[in-house]
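so ive been stuck on this for like two days lol. basically i have the seq below and the ligand is zinc ion, smiles is in there too. i just want the complex predicted, nothing fancy, no docking runs or whatever. if the output looks off dont worry ill sanity check it later, just need somthing to start from for the group meeting slides
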Amino acid sequence: MAASSGTTNRVAVSGTVTDRISGGPIDGSTITFRNSLETRSATVVAGSYTIDVASGFNYDVHVSGPANVTHETQMLNVTGAGEFPFSVLKWGSGAFGATNDDTFQKFFHQLARVGPSSDPIALRKWVIPPTQLYVVEGTVPPEQLAAVLAVLGEINAESVSDLWCRTVAPLNIVTGPDINASPDGVIIVRPNRDTGSSGTIGPTSIRTGTVTCNMFRSGDNRLQTHQELKGILLHELFHVAFAYHVCGGDLGANPFGFSSTNCPYPDSLMANLGDLPVTLSPQDKLASCIVYHPDTHPGNLYQDVNPTYR
Ligand SMILES: [Zn+2]
């Protein structure tokens, strides 16, 4: 026993702790490294910490305090002294006019982690950049295909980049015959007359997607208007990017009881309360930028639990 404790190699680890939204320093939170034998804590001062730990262990790291959403990183392997930066979600921070508060965190959880009831509650994220919208020919008359292409051109110019927090450029829009394959980086868009609209809710690590869009409103005996088609395609593409319904339609596990009358941000693309918006809301944009921040990992759990360090 004395021999083993005498050979433990203690090392200094340090790093920055910053706000994942603004990049600014976190101050006054407590950072804790925990392994199977011990727990070591330090205070984060002006965005930095230093702590001594035993090397050769996997650590669970917590960053908690009134300044930020409680953060946990699992499986941090310390093999020697080194720098280990962390980012956390600072309360009251924001972007695009949206604020990271308790309501936003609940919205974010429903949007980014909840899915159809059979799916696990873990954050979805593209792990390669999407590059192409492949629009299938021959499923609707040529003038309706042209309407789809016109709408996709507008969405591509106005919103696609924001769906992935500007980590992707506008996509290449191509047309071609129907295909069975799901090539990496390709989002297949398949128009139909009146069998419905959908967008794939991907696995936690997304590489491809499929959208269908309904051209004819049989209840109203007419084609979709340009604006209706735009709202439909933008909503379905947000599904493909990562997002799930927040207030209307299938809400999956819905842990916070959102509904048409308890809807935190009714102008979200995913509020899904009838007429679909044709632009992202401020909260949609902020959510996308948290999902597509490099420190938010596929499989991230509520509130801010990353399954691995990198
Ligand atoms: Zn939907």
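The first helix runs from residue 2 to 6. The chain has two domains: 2-90, 107-291.
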